[in-house]
Amino acid sequence: MNTMGFKPPLSRDTLREIQNRNLDSADVHALLWEIKRLRATVLHADQLQRLLTTLSGPQGDVLEALREKLKDEPCVREFPRLPPGV
Description:
86 residues, single chain, 0% strand, 64% helix, mainly alpha
Protein backbone atom coordinates (compact mmCIF):
# COMPACT_ATOMS: atom_id res chain seq x y z
CA MET A 1 0.00 0.00 0.00
CA ASN A 2 1.46 3.35 -1.05
CA THR A 3 -0.09 6.20 0.92
CA MET A 4 0.84 9.84 1.28
CA GLY A 5 3.42 9.59 -1.51
CA PHE A 6 5.65 7.13 0.33
CA LYS A 7 7.63 4.53 -1.56
CA PRO A 8 6.72 0.90 -0.80
CA PRO A 9 8.03 -0.38 2.55
CA LEU A 10 11.28 -2.30 2.68
CA SER A 11 11.45 -5.92 3.77
CA ARG A 12 13.95 -7.26 6.28
CA ASP A 13 15.86 -8.90 3.42
CA THR A 14 16.09 -5.63 1.49
CA LEU A 15 17.34 -3.81 4.58
CA ARG A 16 19.95 -6.53 5.08
CA GLU A 17 21.08 -6.12 1.45
CA ILE A 18 21.45 -2.36 1.98
CA GLN A 19 23.49 -3.03 5.11
CA ASN A 20 25.75 -5.47 3.26
CA ARG A 21 26.40 -2.94 0.47
CA ASN A 22 27.31 -0.25 3.01
CA LEU A 23 29.32 -1.99 5.71
CA ASP A 24 31.71 0.95 6.13
CA SER A 25 29.08 3.70 6.29
CA ALA A 26 28.45 4.99 9.81
CA ASP A 27 25.48 6.99 8.49
CA VAL A 28 23.81 3.92 6.96
CA HIS A 29 24.53 1.98 10.14
CA ALA A 30 22.85 4.71 12.24
CA LEU A 31 19.84 4.82 9.90
CA LEU A 32 19.42 1.04 10.04
CA TRP A 33 19.44 1.14 13.85
CA GLU A 34 16.74 3.82 13.72
CA ILE A 35 14.71 1.67 11.32
CA LYS A 36 15.10 -1.28 13.70
CA ARG A 37 13.83 0.85 16.59
CA LEU A 38 10.85 2.08 14.58
CA ARG A 39 10.00 -1.44 13.41
CA ALA A 40 9.96 -2.53 17.07
CA THR A 41 7.51 0.30 17.79
CA VAL A 42 5.30 -0.89 14.92
CA LEU A 43 5.34 -4.41 16.38
CA HIS A 44 4.30 -3.03 19.79
CA ALA A 45 1.42 -1.17 18.12
CA ASP A 46 0.43 -4.40 16.39
CA GLN A 47 0.46 -6.25 19.73
CA LEU A 48 -1.76 -3.58 21.27
CA GLN A 49 -4.30 -3.61 18.44
CA ARG A 50 -4.51 -7.41 18.68
CA LEU A 51 -5.36 -7.13 22.38
CA LEU A 52 -8.17 -4.68 21.69
CA THR A 53 -11.30 -6.32 20.37
CA THR A 54 -13.43 -3.39 19.29
CA LEU A 55 -13.91 0.21 20.28
CA SER A 56 -16.92 2.37 19.54
CA GLY A 57 -17.16 5.84 18.09
CA PRO A 58 -14.12 7.80 16.93
CA GLN A 59 -11.78 5.51 18.89
CA GLY A 60 -13.06 2.56 16.86
CA ASP A 61 -12.40 4.43 13.63
CA VAL A 62 -8.83 5.18 14.74
CA LEU A 63 -8.30 1.54 15.72
CA GLU A 64 -9.57 0.30 12.36
CA ALA A 65 -7.33 2.78 10.51
CA LEU A 66 -4.36 1.57 12.56
CA ARG A 67 -5.20 -2.05 11.78
CA GLU A 68 -5.42 -1.23 8.07
CA LYS A 69 -1.97 0.39 8.10
CA LEU A 70 -0.31 -2.30 10.20
CA LYS A 71 -1.45 -5.22 8.06
CA ASP A 72 0.77 -4.07 5.17
CA GLU A 73 3.89 -3.43 7.25
CA PRO A 74 6.68 -5.88 6.37
CA CYS A 75 7.81 -6.22 9.99
CA VAL A 76 4.28 -7.27 10.98
CA ARG A 77 4.00 -9.75 8.08
CA GLU A 78 7.51 -11.11 8.71
CA PHE A 79 7.14 -11.52 12.47
CA PRO A 80 6.48 -15.16 13.44
CA ARG A 81 3.08 -15.79 15.02
CA LEU A 82 1.96 -18.68 17.16
CA PRO A 83 -1.25 -20.33 16.05
CA PRO A 84 -4.32 -19.44 18.12
CA GLY A 85 -4.65 -21.48 21.29
CA VAL A 86 -0.93 -22.24 21.65
